[in-house]
Amino acid sequence: MIAAAAAEGTGSVSPAPHDPPELVRIRDLSVRFRTRRGAFSRTTDEVMAVDGVNLTIHQGRTLGLVGGTGSGKSTIAHVVMGMVGLTSGSVHVAGRDISRISGAERLAHQRLVQVVLQDPYSSLNPRMTIGDIIAEPLTVGRLRMDATAHRERRSRVAELLDVVGLPANRAARYPHQFSGGQRQRIAIARALAPRPRLIVLDEPTSALDVSVRAQILTLLKNLQDELGVTYLVISHDLVTVAYLASEVAVMHLGRIVEVGPMASLFRTPRHPYTLELLASMPGASGAFLAQPRPSVPSAASLPATACRYAIRCALRTRLGDPERCVEADPALRPVGSHHEAACHFTDDAADLAVLADVEPTA
Amino acid sequence: MTDVAATPILEVIDLTVSVRIPGGRRAIVVDNVSFSIGAGGTLGLVGESGSGKTMTSLAIMGLLPPAAQVEAGRILLCGENLLTKSSRDLQRIRGKRIAMVLQDPMTALDPSFTIRSQLSEPLHQHRHLDGRQLDSALVTALEQVHLSGAKERLRQYPHQLSGGMRQRVTSAIALAGQPELLIADEPTTALDSTTQARYLLLLRELQAATGFALLLVAHDLMVVRHVCERVLVMYSSRVVEDGQVAQVFSRPQHPYTRALLDAIPTIGDTVSLRSIEGQAPDIGDNLIGCRFAPRCPYARDACRTEEPDLTGRGSGHLARCWGTEPEGWIT
Amino acid sequence: MAGGVTTAHPRPRLTIAAETAAGPRRSIRLMPWLPIGVIGFFVLVAIAAPLLTSYDPLKINLVDRLHPPIWVNGGSADHILGSDGFGRDELARLLYGARVSFLVAAFALVIAVALGLSLGVIAGYVGNTVDAMLMRLVDILLALPTILVALVVAVAVGPSFQNLVLLLGLLIWPRIARLIRGETIVVKKQDYVRYSSAIGVPGWVVVVRHVIPNVLPTLLVLTTLEIGHVILVEASLSFLGAGLPASSVTWGKMIADGRALVATGWWIALFPGLAITATVMSFNSLGDWIRDYLDPRTRHL
């Protein structure tokens, strides 16, 4: 189960005794980006893409990170993969601190952590055969191999193609000869090649049609059952995350606003943003989204101490704009078994949940 | 919804579109598609990539790529055949009578111009508004799409807005000319889930308030569910099901539609879904019989030898399937 | 209001688009045969020059001067395309001239591509100061008027094959570098490159494995276009008298020789002029075709 320690040290949830060992341990992670204000401007804007995040992923489990654009979920994925540097905090994968890995250690790291990216069209080199693409994690650093390595590599590629449901004899083909769903399978095969312990899935199905989405999700789930690999799945789509993940963390503007077992979040959501996500799911009635929200147009009108979600919060409007929302930015605190939420009015949020109810599909 | 006695706003009759494929041959990507939308009617066109839904909407807009051409059929806008019109006439019709909202809000707006100038253009061109009238129309247009702070928004450039806001602006621009028909081609595919849900609500609201006919093209059945009253399901260039949304969702008459509905995850204590195996036939594949048969759990020999026609299932509900016909074997 | 009615249209029988085992399917019909033909023709005759003519293109023979081409009154089979002001056979000069023109272009381009590709990729991939410095250098070089500089340098260092090739190569590489740098930046942003870097593939391997194969199409188009450019520059230099020494024959020189005799010996400048035009147009046309051909492959449907 997830253990998420609150940033201020309150409400630290201790792991249950039957949990498998930790694989990923993220503590107080912050990532700051600087962007220049204009093409000729010298002033830079700073954005805290990730702000004080704590997460733990246990072996063989799946943690889902869900949130909208700008929530910081993809940034976390990139940090875990080592694609982006962190500003402060620590990320440990299998006991190794990845913020300090050198070039040589990076090779070992990529055998531990692999990634499947969102866009199946730009994640595969159009000028390489898919056999070479899939084998790339195995040939890092080498342009040529000897004959035995070559043979081994070929049989491993055939094995991987089979595992992801593609005919093994297509290894010599090029990416453009495959559909979007098939390309994503190729990307998955590539991620599986070095037998990683953790696979980061960054919006794995967002670029695919719904009919193909289901296939890929089923494949990913089966692979986890078979291989025991750990997943960190990131998506704006709650349903994708819900299907794969046993634990879900909801992110908003760089912070975790709610975290807990998937079932808890669905049955008893305790943060208005989680409610918003639930209400945006395909089967939802729209009643929640029709709720009035604050009419403040720009972020500058709220003081810096305010809750980050206050500007869009339907619960705040419903409760008549309580002072508390503007005075203090709520921290994560326990609201149930292994379940935490960062809102001053988590009980009222539970009341609103009925409006976000998902209709059963026909 | 009751039938509108007047000429339907849009009538597509036996539309067939072909495309040039590598190797120089032509393949059919839209095969005998027919539907009509009355004034104020809403139709969802659903299918996966390659089903022909995008080609259909491009044909209606007169924006088919050079490699594609209309082989047969008619596209009537209030009775006038668009396929026989010159490109100049089509240009005048587009924007004024048919408006479009496309998938990518990032590229639909010109990054070099303010929102004000981009929104003013259709207001000026199609409604001949100027000066003070234009100013108030601009504010009204933005309010209509629930964009707060109109004065500030008008001064901004597209890159300063989020994806959802941009899509609202493109919708405002589309509606500025007060079109009779709005074609929304995968308008939410590039948006995140909450933005998507809000946009669809907006679309429904706009349609109800303004009364334009709506053709909503999507790959996700659930996107059309709360916005459209009728839905057309396309598979591999054919229409396989056509009916009222409520009926199609509760009693789907084609195995592909059923599979699409099954593929929608149901949330309980766990989430379950059923995926469809295999994939759609390639464009240009010479398949005998029903094109869905290779993937269909109900397929029988009859399905593999002869392709079914689109036949009725009661109260305007049509389906292309041997198995769900009145004497068929699928219940 | 209901949709389709049962139709009785016969469905057209379609042929299957077969997938090939590797790479895209090529349609022989669509290749640009004309440009390829023209270029191929010139290359072949250039190679076969000694077999096609027994004349020495450099040998002066004043008795035979200013014979018109065979189809003009006064022409003969001795000089099919006529002879120039020094009695040298026009056809022979055209053939041998082709050799030199093409050789100069080829070698110059090898230098230009080697420099342009490597520096362009480095600038685009490494970025920052390296990129800034290289691009400033490119800007400076591009600002120089090609012909003028070539003239000055040619006069300064003296005419020779090596000097000319080097000079042309150094003048052309900035164009290539600039475009390749732009392409590299685009490719660098692709997910497959980010993935490679993320899993720890060393920079140079990423460049060789991922960047270069994907900028090659642009390079190919650029090269075909620049061949035409180089041929023109060389011809201009020869025309201005700053090209190769008198012991070589090039098309540009032929035009220079024929300039003064335009009235009496119109054929002297005409044929090399036509040859240059045909060659450059063919290369341009080929380059355009390559660009169009490669484009759909990178675009996805």
Description:
- The complex is a heterotrimer of chains A (362), B (331) and C (301).
- With 362 residues, chain A is an alpha/beta fold.
- Chain A folds into 2 domains: 22-126 and 190-267, Rossmann fold; 272-356, no CATH class.
- In chain A, 31% of the residues lie in helices and 22% in strands.
- Chain A is globular.
- Chain B is of the alpha/beta class and 331 residues long.
- Chain B has helices spanning 53-61, 87-96, 105-108, 115-127, 131-144, 150-155, 163-176, 193-210, 221-225, 245-250, 255-262, 301-305; strands at 10-20, 26-37, 42-46, 68-77, 80-81, 98-101, 181-185, 213-218, 230-235, 238-244, 266-267, 271-272, 311-312, 318-319.
- Chain B is globular.
- By secondary structure, chain C is mainly α.
- Chain C has one domain (31-298): Orthogonal Bundle (MetI-like fold).
- Chain C has helices at residues 33-47, 49-52, 90-126, 128-143, 146-157, 161-188, 191-198, 203-239, 251-259, 266-298.
- The two termini of chain C are 33 Å apart.
- Classes of the chains: A alpha/beta (362), B alpha/beta (331), C mainly alpha (301).
Nearest-angstrom radius of gyration of chain C? 25 Å
Specify the CATH class of the largest domain in chain A. Alpha Beta
Strand content range of chain C: under 5%
CATH architectural grouping of the largest domain in chain A: 3-Layer(aba) Sandwich
State the largest interface.
A-B, 42 and 42 residues
Q: Say which CATH homologous superfamily of chain C is assigned.
A: MetI-like
Q: Number of helix segments of chain A?
A: 12
Distance between the termini of chain C: 33 Å
Largest sheet data of chain A: 8 strands, mixed
Helical/strand content category of chain C: mainly alpha
How many structural domains of chain A?
2
Could you name the ranges of chain C where pLDDT drops below 50 across 5 or more consecutive residues? 1-29
Low-confidence stretches of chain A: 1-15
| Morphology call of chain A | globular
Q: Spell out the helices and strands of chain C N to C.
A: HHHHHHHHHH
Work out the helicity level of chain C.
55-70%
Terminal-residue CA separation of chain A: 33 Å
Question: How is the secondary structure organized here?
Answer:
The complex is a heterotrimer of chains A (362), B (331) and C (301).
Chain A: E1 22-36, E2 44-58, E3 62-66, H1 73-81, E4 88-93, E5 96-97, H2 103-112, E6 113-116, H3 130-135, H4 147-163, H5 180-192, E7 198-202, H6 210-227, E8 230-235, H7 238-244, E9 247-252, E10 255-261, H8 262-267, H9 272-279, H10 314-318, H11 323-327, E11 333-336, E12 339-341, H12 346-352
Chain B: E1 10-20, E2 26-37, E3 42-46, H1 53-61, E4 68-77, E5 80-81, H2 87-96, E6 98-101, H3 105-108, H4 115-127, H5 131-144, H6 150-155, H7 163-176, E7 181-185, H8 193-210, E8 213-218, H9 221-225, E9 230-235, E10 238-244, H10 245-250, H11 255-262, E11 266-267, E12 271-272, H12 301-305, E13 311-312, E14 318-319
Parallel strand pairs in B: 3-8, 3-9, 6-7, 7-8
Antiparallel strand pairs in B: 1-2, 1-4, 4-5, 9-10, 10-14, 11-12, 13-14
Helix pairs in contact in B: 4-7
Chain C: H1 33-47, H2 49-52, H3 90-126, H4 128-143, H5 146-157, H6 161-188, H7 191-198, H8 203-239, H9 251-259, H10 266-298
